[in-house]
């Protein structure tokens, strides 16, 4: 990974990672998923990276998204 990119989240579910990545990009935050899962057995992790200048906003957006998914408000 290039300098200046920070891992902000780790997933085991590729779909959840893609949903969060897309949500960040829709909010103007470039994001990259690094899939380290074994393609045959689908185990391992998927890391979500954003630029270090976007870390705070990205974490806040993901937290808000998870709160909405769970039916709670911040």
From TrEMBL:
Domain of life: Bacteria
Pfam families found in the cross-reference section: DUF2007
SUPFAM superfamilies cross-referenced by the UniProt entry: GlnB-like (SSF54913)
Family annotation (InterPro entries): DUF2007 (IPR018551), N-reg_PII-like_a/b (IPR011322)
Domain DUF2007: 5-65
Protein's name in the database: DUF2007 domain-containing protein
Organism: Sphingobacterium arenae
